[in-house]
Design brief:
mainly alpha, Helix Hairpins, 127 residues, 7 helices
């Protein structure tokens, strides 16, 4: 395991412990709708940090958003709806699918073609 993977696994373990039987009452009782206000707030704080070019704060706010995203994923995993691996697999497949110019040898001549390609792929996915 790489060092980053170990650190990520440590974070997952911490969040699972917070949500576990001996964990934090606040973390254990959270629901997806209940976390919406915190996710909105943390995203707003992240956007402000980016706007202010405050790299230390960007790092901190990314951590806060990541925590909430993992919490939402764990809530859904606990309910048997999907697992963290499903989220990772889904976004990875989507990124590969939406970037055929990188992963499938498709060419484009300009940025307008690239954007049109992206929009066509996205529209096809939404059907």
């Amino acid at each position: 395991m790489t060092n980053n993977n170990v650190k990520f696994q440590d974070l997952l373990h911490t969040i699972k412990a917070l949500r576990g039987e001996e964990g934090c009452p606040w973390d254990r009782k959270q629901t997806c709708p209940g976390l919406m206000q915190y996710l909105q707030s943390e995203c707003d704080e992240l956007l402000a940090a980016i706007k202010n070019d405050d790299h230390d704060n960007i790092c901190e706010e990314l951590g806060d958003v990541l925590y909430l995203l993992i919490m939402i994923t764990e809530i859904n995993a606990d309910r048997g709806l999907f697992k963290f691996e499903d989220v990772i697999s889904g976004i990875n497949a989507k990124l590969i699918r939406r970037h055929p110019h990188v992963f499938a040898g498709q060419t484009y001549e300009n940025e307008e073609q690239l954007i049109a390609q992206w929009q066509a792929i996205k529209a096809k996915e939404k059907k």
